[in-house]
């Protein structure tokens, strides 16, 4: 015959210990982030804003490294204004595959993540600009020499990122990223983006 008092004591002990055991179980480890970013860059050759949007997959390696693989689209246009009603059309578009390595000096999967990144990219782009413009003194008419480029390009990039966890589970993160990139045509694009990340 089972005595009720020892059985009740055992159940009470298990119920008391359950919260403590639950606290020792670590949170599920999510080694990768799926990111979406939106922001702008400044076209250094023409000094006009270019929209940049991207999707990125960033798995974690160890406690201080992430590898970011993303597809980025850039697009922008703004006429160069010479005043007195004279302007020259400018446009830039590109679709790039970008690869970056992130170093997280304070560790990954923290409430606040800070990282420094560097890498390269390759893609296809086109740019409409000009090489020279002015007033022809003989005809007193405005002129410019167009420069239209398109084709494959490659380059390097560097960045700094600051991400904040939006909940205790750290499933969602919101952050900002500043970066600079330069391609084989000498197109320098410094800029910043806001990014939303989800642990995967």
Primary descriptors:
200 residues; signal; single chain; two-stranded antiparallel ribbon; 66% strand; mainly beta; Acyloxyacyl hydrolase; elongated
In short:
Keywords: Signal. About 10% of the residues lie in helices and about 65% in strands.
In which order are the strands of the major sheet placed? 1-2-3-6-7-8-9-10
The proportion of residues in beta strands is: over 45%
Low-pLDDT sequence parts:
17-27
Which range best describes the helical content: under 10%, 10-25%, 25-40%, 40-55%, 55-70% or over 70%? Answer: 10-25%
Distance between the termini: 52 Å
Which topology of one domain does CATH recognise? Porin
What is the approximate shape? elongated
* Beta strands, count: 10
Return the average pLDDT rounded to an integer: 85
Query: C-alpha Rg, in Å?
Result: 27 Å
Question: In this structure, how is the largest beta sheet organized?
Answer: 8 strands, antiparallel, barrel
CATH architecture of one domain: Beta Barrel
Count the DSSP helices. 1
Q: In words, what does this structure look like?
A:
The chain is built from one helix and ten strands; from the N terminus they run αββββββββββ. It is mainly β and 200 residues long. The chain has a domain at 26-77 and 93-121 and 151-199: Beta Barrel (Porin), CATH 2.40.160.20. The longest helix is centred in the N-terminal third of the chain and has 21 residues, at 4-24. The radius of gyration is 27 Å and the shape is elongated. Residues 1-22 form the signal peptide. Keywords: Signal.
């Amino acid at each position: 015959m089972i005595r009720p008092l020892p059985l009740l004591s055992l159940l009470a002990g298990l119920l008391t210990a359950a919260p403590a055991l639950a606290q020792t179980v670590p949170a599920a480890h999510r080694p990768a982030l799926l990111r979406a970013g939106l922001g702008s860059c400044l076209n250094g050759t023409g000094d006009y804003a270019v929209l940049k949007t991207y999707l990125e997959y960033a798995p974690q390696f160890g406690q201080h490294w992430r590898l970011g693989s993303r597809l980025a689209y850039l697009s922008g246009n703004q006429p160069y204004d010479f005043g007195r009603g004279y302007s020259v059309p400018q446009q830039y578009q590109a679709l790039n595959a970008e690869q970056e390595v992130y170093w997280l000096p304070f560790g990954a999967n923290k409430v606040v993540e800070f990282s420094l990144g560097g890498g390269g990219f390759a893609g296809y782009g086109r740019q409409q600009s000009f090489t020279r413009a002015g007033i022809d003194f003989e005809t007193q008419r405005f002129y410019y020499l167009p420069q239209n480029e398109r084709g494959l390009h490659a380059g390097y990039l560097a960045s700094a990122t600051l991400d904040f966890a939006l909940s205790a589970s750290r499933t969602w993160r919101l952050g900002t990223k500043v970066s600079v990139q330069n391609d084989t045509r000498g197109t320098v694009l410094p800029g910043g983006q806001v990014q939303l990340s989800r642990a995967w």
